[in-house]
Design goal:
The structure holds 2 protein chains of 2 kinds. By secondary structure, chain A is mainly α. Chain A has helices at 2-13, 18-26, 32-79, 81-93, 106-143, 157-188, 190-203, 208-222, 230-243, 245-256, 260-268, 273-311, 316-326, 331-360. Chain A is built from 14 helices and no strands. Chain A is globular and about 95 Å long. The two termini of chain A are 27 Å apart. Chain B is an alpha/beta fold. Chain B has a single domain, classed as Rossmann fold. Helix content of chain B is 34%, strand content 26%. Chain B is built from 8 helices and 12 strands. The radius of gyration of chain B is 19 Å and the shape is globular. In chain B, 38% of the residues are buried. The chains are: A mainly alpha, B alpha/beta. Bound molecules: adenosine-5'-diphosphate (ADP) and magnesium ion. Magnesium ion (MG) binds at residues 68-69 of chain B.
Chain lengths: 368, 276
């Protein structure tokens, strides 16, 4: 019983009654209202997913036909009937060399997903073997004070995802460390707020690309002769700088708009500045700060892909870019796999923040 | 002029050399408040003089908008004084401070804190040298006094309005102020809860005898609680129009007061004032 309440609370936190409905199906307690809920919360989403895949399938098919016909006609006009027939046969045979290059179908994407997964397992096995092989040598090298030999093979798709997550969390952390304290300070002082306002208004809309270039100029010089991973540094700093503005603005707003009654209480009790900030101002602005952090995290994830792509630092962004340049037969479907992965992770990150946000907000009805 | 009404009992001398009657806790002298508005200055209060004795419970009535809240927040130090001065025990006030506890109209509790934490916020501030246990004991004592012994660890946001205002009362008494200022503290409650809270307030006040100034718009409440009801004239330039001593002995019960002959005399006096 207690568990089911906790589960209900959790699903509510996660912002969907989906699990709850599923649970009532499995416990066999389906009433009329439950059935309606079941239709609305389970069947309708499933149906919409199926419709989406169906439309995608048909769209991909017609694009395929257009591209195929174009190829055949091109062969006909340039090389004559024989070449056109050969092309037709080649396309029909599924030969890799002549497949029309267009939007992949759901089945192709699914196949690529499995390929990527197998690829990952293979690479993981390789890595493990490599580690075992070099274990003794590395131990010796370490004893001699030399750097160990590391695996330099191609990263798998999952490795790229992990790298991207690492970068986005580093960027998010940076945004948090910069934006929250500055936001508090700005929020506390009217003078500072008006003097910082123009700066914020100007920097807020600057595109990720420009931040990247700016960071690039600075970091390039600073890390000239160090061993550090400058691509990683550049991308996470750019992500942080791009994404910190919503947190900065929200924190300042939250701090500046604390209920006057609370401030009066603090005044009557003569709370010191530190106590006032920690016990009154910060707790009351937490909901707004977390709203800002939630936006910051989703912006981080969104710009990360673009920044990785431009900075050529490893991660999902460069995976997408490399596949696009690669132009292999399954490159397009791999890009679409990446798209779903990016979207899915973005969604999960947002849900995670929403859950935290709901936990810190003292007003039960806050935050959706 | 106002000294005439006081039984002069010269005692405490203030730093500025003026000798004050020792029984005066709170002294408002020629108090003035001007709000600048787009249409020019609006003089809310002018030449307002009021003295409140040590241990006295004064209630203030007056028409809505006449400047009662303005006056009280000036005493609390939350609102700047435009002219005249306010002193507590002969010492001119400088800004807000815990010597003047306030119970606001809305409970103004920190909703993210428990009721105990809300009371402790003040207690910790006022008794910094006490041990943690001592401070917690003080906070718990006052929460018990207002009937919240079972809600120490409830979040303020989970309490009803009436319960929240009980915490407000506990918080105000727990910091042991010299003067307690109350601005229509029960105005937002239903009449049943209001009665309950009046009883709680007067019970705890009977023990502590903290000088209290309370604004109310409820004539019966004003009589039930007060030693003296102060009537303010309507603004602009509001001042004290009349005062009425309430000579019921304490402790009082609602029933005894309702049966007292003077009750209707007092009531008529106040209503006549308000209707003119
Ligand atoms: N900050 C302010 N600026 C301008 N006018 C104000 C301000 N606060 C109150 N007033 C005006 O002063 C008058 C007295 O207000 P208030 O003290 O709240 O009255 P009361 O508490 O007796 O109802 C009202 O007319 C109100 O509109
Ligand atoms: Mg008022």
């Amino acid at each position: 019983m207690k568990q089911s309440i906790a589960l209900g609370k959790l699903t509510k936190f996660m912002g969907s009654g989906f699990l709850g409905t599923l649970k009532s199906i499995f416990t066999g307690k389906i009433e009329k209202e439950d059935f309606k809920n079941f239709l609305r919360k389970v069947m309708v989403p499933i149906a919409s997913i199926l419709i989406f895949i169906g439309l995608w399938h048909m769209g991909a098919k017609s694009l395929y036909t257009i591209e195929a016909n174009y190829k055949i006609e091109k062969a006909l006009s340039e090389q004559g009937q024989q070449a056109a027939d050969a092309m037709k046969a080649c396309i029909a045979s599924g030969d890799v060399s002549c497949q029309p290059n267009t939007l992949p179908s759901p089945a192709q994407v699914w196949a690529s997903y499995k390929t990527l997964l197998q690829d990952h397992y293979a690479i993981r096995a390789n890595k493990k073997a490599f580690k075992e092989k070099t274990a003794t040598i590395n131990a010796e090298r370490l004893a001699e004070g030399k750097n160990p030999i590391t695996y330099t093979g191609r990263p798998s798709f999952v490795d790229q995802i992990l790298t991207s997550l690492k970068t986005v969390f580093a960027g998010f952390l940076l945004a948090f460390i910069i934006a929250v304290p500055i936001g508090i300070v700005i929020g506390l002082s009217k003078t500072l707020r008006s003097s910082a306002n123009w700066l914020i208004q100007i920097f807020k809309p600057v595109s990720p690309v420009v931040w990247l270039l700016l960071v690039f100029m600075i970091v390039k010089t600073l890390t000239k002769d160090s061993q550090s991973d400058s691509a990683f540094i550049i991308s996470f700093i750019s992500v942080g700088l791009c994404a910190m503005w919503p947190t900065l603005v929200n924190t300042a707003m939250g701090v500046a708009s604390v209920d006057k009654d609370y401030i009066n209480v603090a005044k009557v009790l003569k709370l010191g500045t530190f106590k006032k900030v920690y016990q009154v101002i910060l707790p009351s602005s937490l909901p707004l700060i977390f709203t800002g952090l939630r936006i910051t995290l989703s912006v981080s994830w969104m710009v990360l892909i673009a920044i990785e792509l431009l900075a050529q630092s490893p991660g999902l962004g460069s995976f997408v870019w490399e596949e696009f340049q690669n132009g292999a037969i399954d490159s397009n479907s791999k890009i679409i796999v990446a798209m779903f992965v990016i979207g899915g992770i973005g969604f999960l990150l947002d849900r995670m923040m929403l859950t935290i946000q709901n936990m810190v907000s003292f007003n039960k009805n806050d935050g959706v | 002029m106002h000294t005439k009404t006081i039984n002069n009992n010269i005692g405490i001398s203030a730093e500025n050399g003026i000798v004050y009657p020792s029984k005066i806790m709170l002294d408002l002298v020629d108090l003035k408040k001007v709000y600048p508005t787009p249409k020019g200055d609006y003089v809310v209060l002018k030449d307002l003089n009021l003295q409140v004795m040590k241990g006295e419970f004064v209630t203030i009535i007056g028409h809505s908008g006449c400047g009662k809240t303005t006056m009280l927040s000036m005493i609390a130090g939350l609102n700047a004084i435009s002219g005249g001065n306010i002193s507590v025990l002969g010492k001119q006030i400088k800004g807000p401070g815990p010597d003047r506890g306030v119970i606001f109209q809305s409970p103004s509790l920190m909703p993210w804190m428990t009721s105990l934490q809300n009371v402790l916020l003040g207690v910790n501030q006022v008794f910094p040298h006490a041990t943690k246990t001592q401070r917690t004991d003080i906070a718990k004592y006052y929460l018990q006094k207002v009937g919240l012994e079972s809600a120490f660890h409830k979040k303020a946001s989970e309490l009803s309005q009436g319960m929240q205002q009980r915490v407000g009362i506990a918080r105000a008494f727990a910091i042991k102020p010299k003067v307690l200022l109350l601005d229509e503290p029960f105005g937002m409650l239903d009449s049943l809860t209001r009665g309950e809270l009046q009883d709680i307030l007067i019970e705890i006040w009977n023990k502590e005898k903290i000088t209290a100034v309370m604004i109310t718009h409820d004539v019966d409440e004003a009589i039930f609680l007060a030693d003296r009801v102060v009537m303010m004239t309507s603004g602009p330039e509001a001042k004290i129009g009349d005062t009425l001593n309430i000579d019921f002995e304490r402790p009082r019960t609602r029933k005894a007061i309702l049966e007292h002959d003077n009750y209707y005399k007092y009531r008529k006096h106040l209503i006549d004032f308000l209707e003119h």
